[in-house]
Every structure is written in structure tokens, then in C-alpha cells.
Design goal:
Elements lengths: L2 H5 L24 H6 L2 H12 L11 E6 L4 E2 L5 E3 L4 H4 L1 H14 L3 E6 L5 H4 L8 H17 L4 E8 L4 H10 L6 E5 L18 H6 L5 H10 L13 H11 L15 H20 L3 H4 L2 H14 L5 H11 L7 H10 L16 H6 L2 H12 L14 H10 L1 H14 L10 H6 L17 E3 L15 E11 L2 H9 L8 E4 L4 H4 L5 H9 L7 E4 L11 E6 L15 E8 L4 E9 L6 H10 L14 H12 L11 H20 L2
Parallel strand pairs: 1-4, 1-5, 5-6, 8-9, 9-10, 10-11
Antiparallel strand pairs: 2-3, 7-11, 8-12, 12-13
Length: about 650
């Protein structure tokens, strides 16, 4: 390296530096009252606004803040100048632009701020995953600080798409109790005409290692998986489920979730949302009018009907906490999933597995809600961002031209009957769709666990609807060692993989899609079960039990398992009850009472430890969310509880020092 390499032969015209400028033409529209009564920040803000080029004559319109997760730098023609982390935030700026232009047309003054977001797909199997779930809380804090840092904003529009950015945006907006807020879901990418979706494509390494695809097939399929440049994944993972949940809560417009990114109907949705935000401000409709206990329950009901990602069991409680609503418990989730049938045939659950854009064309969230309305399980009296109740929105949808034309296009373009994607309860039952989640307990998971029971391969489920697997444990203290075992042929049909140390204290509660996706797409994978204190991607399927509590590093029994231990898993997909128990060894079966006592007396696995690369930021997050109620309260920050614990700790330290 040299100075000449860095500076080169500079163009001398660079040295012609301007030291003053004329400034904007015109005058600020000030009044005597403004000068006497307004804080200096409001007045200086006007100076900065014209400094950025806004016309002085248009300064007094209503100021609307647009927050987005935009990532990367795009040329005007869409070509990449600097890549984003993922397609989900690559085109978000287009939605923000459409919303801003609509606000301007309506006489308002739009502002924009950005907090980009990570990609769980990009960080799978890497130390980047240690920052994934903690990012949600951090981003929500920054969003809230940005909102408060523009004191003159009259409403907030949040534009977001994917796994952590959208939940973070919803948590932040739910906190703005007295402001009008609205979510603009960022939409979905299209699948390749010939190829694999973005979920299956993440298994090319495991399938190649097991000789199930060739090197060339992996290269060709990988090149086509993200067939369009923007939007969340083509399956109903955490990104798509979060969009669905936002709409179900009433904080996003009807039929806005899962729109195809970059297309005219997607951009029109941003303009419609901007108009809605302005109308909310005019009518005095604020977030607290929309985000209620009833709205939270509607979201849980729709989540069950869609068969959504289990990650929303972490996000919906956090949103409820931010909104000052009742935080759902495991009992609430169980109650709702027992009474709500799954009605949507969408990737990754199947049975056919349609893509998210086809769910949108089949009618999306409002179409599902029409079926739920007939079952009488929705709170139709809740307010929504349209200014109307949910019931009124559904009345409009049922008779709308939009609904008819969407379904017609799906039938004519793809030859798919919309009623084969979004079904009535009778057809759904005939097609084998089962309720979404089960919460197994047992001596391995005394505080509970979760499995997306609807996605267990039907061929390994008994005729009575019960999945049963008793097998020997193969224990791993890191995801890295577990995926190595899969790729190197150390896992066989009948095994029960145990991955410990993946909870909040060990890895920031990493997502283990590397493992679950491999098991789904390898020929023997449906005959392997996985249990872990980590979490799963929204696209995960199979007999995979996660969120096991207590986590291993908190002394949970999962951390005491050893290779060769016999484990019994029972999951009733009809009654939504299940168990996961250590039952002894192959040579010595034990009663549950005796087995529980053996676990109690065992020491933790000798190789169990927090990942040595765990960042201090994540360690702090893990500690704060732990004293706030942990995973089952949504990994939140309960400020009052944290302060209470800190005060108690300070007092204990002071007393300890006095006694020295």
C-alpha cells in the first residue's frame, strides 16, 4: 500500500472549493405565535427542511414519518450499486417513495428514516445468527428513538418485510400508543418458473454431501431460487407470517400481506397506506385504538389458520407487551390452536405447498378471515387502520371486484382453483390439514417446548393422528457439530438428534434451519427427530421440537442428556398434546419417575458451554430478557422488572461488602 495508490493523480479542479451559498429562495411561513410559543427545535427544523430543498410555501403541511428497513444501494434502473443483506429489504425504498409522494400530493410533509435488517438465511450456520433474535429488540429501540426524535410527526408509517425487521417495526409502532401508525408489508419474491423455492435451496450443501444432487444441479438451482429481486421468501416462514399477523391485527390494510414485490398492486398498496395514515390522523384514531387484547387474539387465530411460523410465538407476545396488552401464555396458544383449523395449503406445510404469491391471489388474509367469520372465532368489532371495524372490512372484501379478479387470474394464469389454497374447514380436514402447533412437556422439557405439529410428514404419523418416536439420542453441543454429522453420514433413520446450548444464554437462541431443512429434504430425514433449546426457522418442518425450557445452560434437563439415552416423543396432532421424555437406556428402561430422578442427579454435559464467539451485546440481551420472563414472554425487556432486579442486586452487593 502507498499514499499514491490511495490518492492517485488528483484532478486539480477538486480544489475549487465553494465557501458560501445563496440559500433557499423565499421566506419561512412564520407567525408571531410560532416565534413566541414554539420550541427552538421546531423552528430550526423548518430551516433544515428548506435547506434540504423543500419549498418554503409547503412547510406547514402535516409531517408524516416513514420508517423503513431499506438495505443496499440501487441505481435508478434497479441495478445494484451496493448489495443489501437480502431481497426482503432491497426494494423497500420503492414503497417508501410511493408513500412519500402520496403524502406530498395530499399536502403533507413526508420524512424518512432507515434501520436495515439482517437475513436469517444468510446467517444460517454462522456466528451472524448470534445477533439475529437480539436484533429485534435493538431495532425496536432505535425505531422508537427515531420516532420520538421527530417531535413534529403526526403519524408514522412502517415499511418492512422480513424475519426481524418487520417484528421490530411492529413492536416499535405498538409502543406509540397515542400516535396513528400503520404497517406497510414489504411483500414477497416470486418463485422460479423452473427451480426450487428459497427454503429448499438452503439444503443444497446437505443434499450434495449425501449424493442426492450433483454439483452442477446445486449451482444451477441456486442461481434461480430468488427469481425476482425484492420481497420476502416464497414460503410462509417468519417473514410471510409476520406480514399476515400485521394485517390480522388491523395495523395493516386489508389484503396487503404477501403482495408480489415490485409490481403495480404492491406499489399502490403503499399509496393506499399513506392515505389511510392521513385519515387516521384527521379522525384522531391512534395505535391504542387498534392494538387491543381482541386484536392480539385475532392475530393468534389467523396465525393458527395459516399454519404460521413458530417464531411468532416470540414476536406476538413482544408486540402485545409493547401495546400494553395482555401477553399470551402457552395456555392461550394451546386453547386457540385446539379450536382453530388450519385452512391454508402453503409452503412449507403443504400438502401441495403453494407459494405465498398464490395465497395472495387466492385472497390472502381477508379470505381466510371470511371462513373464520363463519366459525364465529373473530372479534369483528375491533378497529382497524381503515377507520372501519374488521367486520366492515370483511363485508367490503366479500363483495369487492378486487377479490373476484384476483381469484380469476389465479385460475386462468396458473390453473389453480383458489379454493384449493384457502379452504373451508370441511375441505381442509378432508385434505389432511391439521392444527398448527403443539407444546410438548416432559422430563426433558418441564417448562415446555414447541413443535409445528401440522408439518410432521403424514407418512410417519399413525392412523390415529399420533406421531410416536422412541430412539437413541445423538447429542451435540453445537449446531456446527450437528450439521457436520448430517453431511458426513453419521445420522441415520431412527435417530433422535439432541442439540443443546442453543438457547438465549448459549447462542442468542440461534435459528437451526440448517438442520431442519436438511432433515426435510434428505430421503431418510422424516425418520429422524430433533430436539433443541434453540429455535427454528419459519420454514422448518418435520418432527422438530424447539424452545425447550429451561435451556441447557440454565441447568435444564436437556443439558444432561448423553449419547445413547433413550428418548420417547409423542405428539397428538388432533388433540394438540405431546410429551418428550428421557426413559433410560437401551439396556435399562426406567419409569418416568425414576428417569426424572436420574436426570436430576446427573451433571450437565461436560462439553456444554456458551459459544466462545457469543458477542457481549448478545450476552447482555440474554440476561435482560431472562429476568423479564424469557422465551415464553417473547424475549422482551420488562423495564420495571429489570430495574427491580438491578436494585436488588446493588443492595445485595452493598450488604455483602458491609459483611466483609
Amino acid at each position: 500500500m502507498s499514499l499514491h495508490l490511495i490518492f492517485g493523480d488528483e484532478d486539480v479542479s477538486l480544489y475549487n472549493i465553494q465557501t458560501h451559498a445563496k440559500g433557499a429562495d423565499g421566506s419561512l411561513p412564520l407567525t408571531s405565535e410560532m416565534l413566541l410559543d414554539s420550541p427552538s427545535g421546531d423552528l430550526f427544523g423548518l430551516s433544515q427542511n428548506v435547506g434540504m430543498g423543500w419549498a418554503p410555501s409547503r412547510l406547514l403541511g402535516k409531517q408524516i414519518l416513514i420508517l423503513g428497513t431499506q438495505g443496499g444501494i440501487r441505481h435508478e434502473n434497479g441495478a445494484p450499486i451496493a448489495l443489501g443483506y437480502h431481497t426482503g429489504h432491497w426494494e423497500i425504498g420503492l414503497l417508501m417513495k410511493e408513500a412519500a409522494e402520496e403524502i406530498r400530493r395530499q399536502g403533507g410533509v413526508p420524512f424518512a428514516g432507515f434501520v436495515s435488517d439482517p437475513c436469517d438465511g444468510r446467517s444460517q450456520g454462522t456466528t451472524g445468527m448470534f445477533d439475529s433474535l437480539p436484533f429485534r429488540n435493538d431495532a425496536a429501540i432505535v425505531y422508537r428513538r427515531l420516532i420520538r426524535s421527530l417531535p413534529t410527526r403526526r403519524a408514522v408509517i412502517g415499511v418492512a418485510t422480513c424475519d426481524k425487521g418487520l417484528p421490530a417495526m411492529m413492536v416499535a409502532l405498538a409502543s406509540m400508543h397515542d400516535l396513528p401508525t400503520i404497517i406497510v408489508p414489504g411483500g414477497v419474491t416470486l418463485p422460479p418458473t423452473n427451480g426450487e423455492d428459497a427454503g429448499k435451496i438452503q439444503t443444497i450443501g446437505a443434499r450434495y454431501a449425501n449424493n442426492e444432487i450433483t454439483l452442477q444441479e446445486a449451482a444451477d438451482l441456486g442461481c434461480r431460487a430468488c427469481a425476482t429481486p425484492g420481497g420476502g421468501c416464497q414460503f410462509l416462514g417468519t417473514a410471510g407470517t409476520s406480514q399476515v399477523v400485521a394485517e390480522a391485527m388491523g395495523i395493516a390494510l386489508p389484503h396487503s400481506a404477501l403482495a408480489p414485490s415490485g409490481q403495480p398492486i404492491w406499489m399502490e398498496m403503499a399509496r393506499q397506506s399513506a392515505r389511510a395514515a392521513l385519515e387516521m390522523e384527521k379522525k384522531g384514531l391512534s395505535t391504542k385504538d387498534i392494538m387491543t387484547d381482541k386484536a392480539i387474539e385475532n392475530a393468534m387465530v389467523v396465525h393458527a389458520a395459516f399454519g404460521g411460523s413458530t417464531n411468532l410465538l416470540l414476536h406476538i407476545p413482544a408486540i402485545a407487551h409493547a401495546a400494553n396488552c395482555k401477553i399470551p401464555t402457552v395456555e392461550d396458544w394451546t386453547r386457540i390452536n385446539k379450536k382453530i383449523p388450519r385452512l391454508v395449503d402453503v409452503l412449507p406445510n403443504g400438502p401441495v405447498g403453494h407459494t405465498t404469491v398464490k395465497v395472495f391471489l387466492a385472497g390472502g388474509v381477508p379470505e381466510v378471515m371470511l371462513h373464520l367469520r363463519k366459525l364465529g372465532v373473530l372479534h369483528e368489532d375491533v378497529q382497524t387502520v381503515t377507520g372501519e371495524t374488521l367486520g366492515a372490512n370483511l363485508d367490503w372484501w366479500e363483495k369487492s371486484e378486487r377479490r373476484a379478479l384476483m381469484k380469476k387470474q389465479l385460475l386462468e394464469t396458473d390453473g389453480i382453483d383458489p379454493d384449493d389454497i384457502i379452504m373451508d374447514p370441511i375441505k381442509a380436514k378432508e385434505r389432511g390439514l391439521t392444527s398448527t402447533v403443539t407444546f410438548p412437556k416432559g422430563n426433558i422439557a418441564p417448562e415446555g417446548s414447541v413443535i409445528k405439529s401440522t408439518s410432521i410428514d403424514p407418512s410417519v404419523v399413525g392412523e390415529d393422528g399420533i406421531y410416536r418416536h422412541t430412539g437413541k439420542a445423538k447429542v451435540f453441543t453445537s449446531e456446527k457439530s450437528a450439521i457436520k454429522a448430517i453431511k458426513h453420514g453419521s445420522i441415520e433413520a431412527g435417530d433422535i438428534m439432541v442439540v443443546m446450548g442453543g438457547g438465549p444464554s448459549g447462542t442468542g437462541m440461534e435459528e437451526t434451519y440448517q438442520l431442519t431443512s436438511a432433515l426435510k429434504h434428505l430421503s431418510y430425514g422424516k425418520h429422524v427427530s430433533l430436539i433443541t433449546d434453540a429455535r427454528f426457522s419459519g420454514v422448518s418442518t418435520g418432527a422438530c421440537i424447539g424452545h425447550i425450557g429451561p435451556e441447557a445452560l440454565a441447568g435444564g434437563p436437556i443439558g444432561k442428556l448423553r449419547d445413547g439415552d433413550m428418548i420417547e416423543i409423542i405428539v397428538d396432532r388432533n388433540e394438540l398434546v405431546g410429551s418428550v421424555n428421557f426413559i433410560g437406556t437401551e439396556n435399562e428402561r426406567l419409569s418416568l419417575a425414576d428417569a426424572s430422578q436420574v436426570l436430576k442427579e446427573r451433571s450437565l454435559h461436560p462439553d456444554l458451554q456458551p459459544n466462545p464467539d457469543l458477542p457481549d451485546d448478545t450476552r447482555l440481551w440474554a440476561a435482560l430478557q431472562s429476568v423479564s420472563g424469557g422465551t415464553w414472554r417473547g424475549n422482551i425487556y420488562d423495564t420495571d422488572r429489570i430495574i427491580e432486579v438491578l436494585k436488588a442486586g446493588v443492595k445485595a452487593l452493598e450488604e455483602e461488602q458491609l459483611n466483609v
